[in-house]
Each structure stands twice: as structure tokens, then as C-alpha cells.
């Protein structure tokens, strides 16, 4: 897997297109969730892109700067392509993104607004649930934190 970690302004046009296409394919089409993915926060984010040996984007996430949406840095838009699931790529993606967060914001807690069915997955990385389940775009979510 080849990882790239870029600010929005550093993304190549193809990188941005591929990321938006993958997010749309999973979050909008697969999860049947019509929502506005281009929410204005991509510009204030780091983008972690994972490409396979053929150069196909198969995994990505974004990390919003502290203060962009929340007081803390926050990880979101975590996605892997359906055809590569079950191979540990989601764990590799999230571990890489979390390591980049810790390096960029040492000593800060990190926020995650997770789909509720993935709470156990994120707990495996040290995230702890806070509060009740809430609805976001028709999908149950939970707020989670990871202490420094």
C-alpha cells in the first residue's frame, strides 16, 4: 500500500476526484445516504490516501485541523473500497491516520464521530465513547475520544 498525506491544496486533481468518487460510492450509494459530501471542510483537512500496487485508490480518510469544526483535531470520512474489505486494510488505514494525527498534534486528544456499528473497531485504537447515540444523515453515530 502506498500512503500519501497531503493538505487539500497539495492534492492532485486526480487524487481529489478519486477520493470524492470513493466516498460517494460507499457513503452515498452503498449506504443509501444522500448527503452533501462536499461540506466545506475538506479545505481545512489533511487527506490520507491509500493506493494499491496498480495505483487505484482503495482507502482514504481526512483529518480536520483543531478549530476547523471542533476544538480538537478530528478524524472522519474513513472509507475503504468494498472490493478490498476483509483484508485488514481498514485497520491499516486507521492506524496510519491515527499515527499522523498524534505526530501533528502531540499531547492533544482526538475526536471521532463514528458510525455506531463501528464503535468496537475504533475502541480497538483507544477511542472511548462519550454520550448517547445520535442520528447524522439517517445513520446512528457515536462521539468518541482518544486521550493523548
Textual characterization of the structure:
The protein is built from three helices and seven strands. It is α+β, with helices and mostly antiparallel strands and 148 residues long. It has one domain (2-146): Gcn5-related N-acetyltransferase (GNAT) (Aminopeptidase, 3-Layer(aba) Sandwich), CATH 3.40.630.30. Strands 1-2-3-4-5-7-6 form a seven-stranded mixed β-sheet, sandwiched between helices. The radius of gyration is 14 Å and the shape is globular. The mean pLDDT is 95.
Q: If helices are DSSP runs of H or I spanning 4 or more residues, what is the number of helices?
A: 3
CATH topology: Aminopeptidase
Which term fits the overall shape? Answer: globular
Strand content: 25-35%
Which blocks of ≥5 consecutive residues have pLDDT under 50? none
Topology:
Blueprint: E1 2-7, H1 13-30, E2 45-51, E3 57-64, E4 74-80, H2 89-104, E5 110-115, H3 119-123, E6 128-136, E7 139-146
Parallel strand pairs: 4-5
Antiparallel strand pairs: 1-2, 2-3, 3-4, 5-7, 6-7
